[in-house]
Design brief:
The protein has about 270 residues and is mainly alpha-helical. The protein contains 16 helices and no strands. Helix 9 packs parallel to helix 11 and helix 13 runs parallel beside helix 15. The longest helix has 15 residues.
Length: about 270
């Protein structure tokens, strides 16, 4: 199938239109006008195709749409919004799931954007996290999706954590479970108690997110440690307050490198 570069066609028409109207609009106005023109372009009849861009994709089957998207990415031809909109309007999970296999981050990103919170994709999403495939941005996006569905996926998240895979992501997901379970609390607590100084701030935030006030005691014990740094102290204080506790004892971090860096950045921002 020969690809149609609809974005290229639009750019040609836009260049001509802007030249004809160059003195009529400010730069800010053009920012508002261009998206409207692109949307209108989707309904513009193109004689050589005997259809509008929207109609062109509407005629395709699900598999043809997926193949066209794949071809656009492989040939580095801009993907028209009309193609994505048509795929999104259909129940096309079956043809998009193969995009989540392998190591092609761009294909996976498009599939995730189109599939979103479709539970049929959850198995593939977990595989990506468990195997550490694709880039960190994609894995973080998947963790964000699972955070919204933590109660639905808690069993798989817990099992994956116990197997030793993607443990920070699994802890993050488990921390958002609303229907409380003792094994989840104990898992979050143990992860916090065994954390090193780089892990401790984030794992304190997991306890705060989970919302079990029993965590106040270990958090308060940890914050009393005079050896902790400013970043960890701040996260511990937040976690304590999020659980309804408080810690107001003055602490001196004037020699802490993170504190000094934050202070320097704040001073620079004020001066600018």
């Amino acid at each position: 199938m020969k690809l149609i570069d609809f974005d290229g066609l639009f750019d040609e028409k836009l260049t001509q239109y802007m030249e004809e109207n160059k003195n009529k609009h400010s730069e800010k106005q053009w920012e508002d006008i261009i998206p409207k023109l692109y949307k209108k372009f989707g309904d513009t009849y193109i004689a050589k195709l005997k259809s509008t861009p929207k109609q062109y994709y509407a005629k395709m089957s699900d598999s043809e749409l997926a193949d066209t998207l794949s071809q656009h990415l492989e040939e580095d031809i801009p993907v028209p919004e009309f193609l994505c909109a048509e795929l999104e309007s259909r129940d096309a999970a079956e043809v998009l799931l193969p995009f989540l296999e392998g190591d092609d981050c761009e294909k996976a990103a498009y599939a995730i954007n189109l599939l979103g919170e479709d539970t049929r994709a959850f198995g593939a999403y977990f595989s990506i996290l468990k195997e550490g495939r694709l880039n960190e941005d994609i894995r973080s996006d998947l963790a964000d999706i699972f955070r919204l569905h933590a109660d639905e996926v808690k069993a798989q998240a817990y099992a994956t954590y116990c197997e030793g895979y993607a443990q920070e992501y699994m802890l993050e997901i488990l921390s958002r479970v609303k229907e409380k379970e003792e094994e989840i609390y104990q898992t979050l607590l143990k992860a916090f108690l065994t954390a090193d100084e780089t892990q401790s701030p984030m794992r304190a935030s997991y306890l705060a997110a989970y919302g079990d006030t029993r965590a106040l005691k270990p958090l308060l014990e940890r914050i009393e440690d005079r050896g902790i740094g400013f970043v960890e102290f701040q996260e511990l204080k937040y976690a304590i307050e999020a659980l309804g506790g408080e810690y107001n004892e003055p602490r001196d971090f004037s020699e802490d490198k993170d504190y000094l860096a934050i202070e320097a950045a704040s001073s620079s921002a004020v001066q600018n």
